[in-house]
Amino acid sequence: MIVVDTHIIIWEALAPQKLSVAATQAWAQAAGQGEIFVSDISLWEIAMLMHKERLQVNTDCQSFINLLIQANNLHIQPITPQIAALSVQLTNEINQDPADRLIAATALSQKMPLITADRNLQAAVTIHTIW
Question: pLDDT tens digits for 32-76?
Fold first, then answer.
């Protein structure tokens, strides 16, 4: 079981060559078992990227997000009270970006590794990351 950062979902779908070997292997193993988890804040981040035209695809936002979820059998993890509390308790080694904090807290609360290329999250000693 793994949690994936927002950019990993996008890269896996649109630019898989950007993924590291370890990330690709972890994704494939978790996908084979139907155990890829995504913080629901990632859906919002994808929508914002599309709205700002920083992510361009040949379909509307809702259809693209639904396609990502269905094609990869993603499990959407809602922000729970535990995740919200963990996100604000994380040390300053994690930046103040609410999405990064919620994604990290999701991985911590579920006791799952986080696939991310984000060096800030990789440097956090409290989070088990794969890259």
Answer: 999 999 999 999 999 999 999 999 999 999 999 999 999 999 999
pTM listed for this prediction: 0.94
Alpha-carbon distance of 43 to 98, in angstroms, equals: 14
Q: How far is CA 126 from CA 10, 59, 108, 111, 118, in A?
A: 25, 38, 8, 11, 15
Q: Which CATH number fits domain 2-130: 3.40.50.2300, 3.40.630.30, 3.40.50.1010, 3.30.365.10?
A: 3.40.50.1010
